């Protein structure tokens, strides 16, 4: 199969990719990366890796069951760890980038909510100030009670002077 396809030799050929284009669901892959990074950051992962290394070294040094596929200095084990690290680092970076995007969105939401709360507080402060200004023009409950007491006292005094019965 030719690398370049042409209709005629006078037309430039189109380049075909060497590898087929792979379509990945970025959300699913991102979730996988986060799960992998989350697992690699646990004590369980450290314990599993420690057990794996101890078993590997024990089998290759002692040679139990006649198994010695990776003698000292354990080049195959080092290759395994290098491969693991080469995959772990990008997965961890991808997980961190996704978390950074979520944090930025959360921060933007927090700023928007804080701005709305500030606008609401300013509105309420203006409303309270307007009510206080108008309240000065209104009669308060204590003022009305005081005025009624004064009127009742004056009425009682007037009735006493004229001698009429106040109780009726």
From TrEMBL:
Pfam families, sorted: DUF1003 (PF06210)
Under the heading InterPro entries, the entry gives:
DUF1003
Where does the source fall among the domains of life? Bacteria
Record protein name field: Uncharacterized protein
């Amino acid at each position: 199969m030719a690398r370049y396809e042409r209709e005629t030799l006078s037309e430039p050929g189109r380049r075909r990719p060497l590898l087929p284009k792979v379509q990945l669901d970025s959300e699913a892959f991102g979730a996988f990366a986060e799960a992998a990074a989350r697992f690699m950051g646990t004590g369980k992962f450290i314990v599993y890796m420690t057990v794996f290394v101890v078993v590997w070294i024990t089998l290759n040094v002692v040679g139990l069951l006649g198994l010695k596929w990776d003698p000292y200095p354990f080049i195959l084990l080092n290759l395994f760890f290098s491969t693991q690290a080469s995959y772990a680092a990008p997965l961890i970076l991808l997980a961190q980038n996704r978390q950074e995007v979520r944090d930025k969105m959360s921060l933007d939401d927090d700023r928007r909510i804080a701005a709305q709360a500030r606008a609401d507080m300013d509105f309420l402060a203006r409303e309270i100030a307007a009510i206080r200004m108008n309240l000065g023009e209104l009669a308060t409950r204590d003022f009305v009670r005081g005025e009624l007491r004064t009127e009742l006292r004056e009425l009682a005094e007037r009735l006493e002077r004229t001698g009429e019965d106040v109780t009726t």
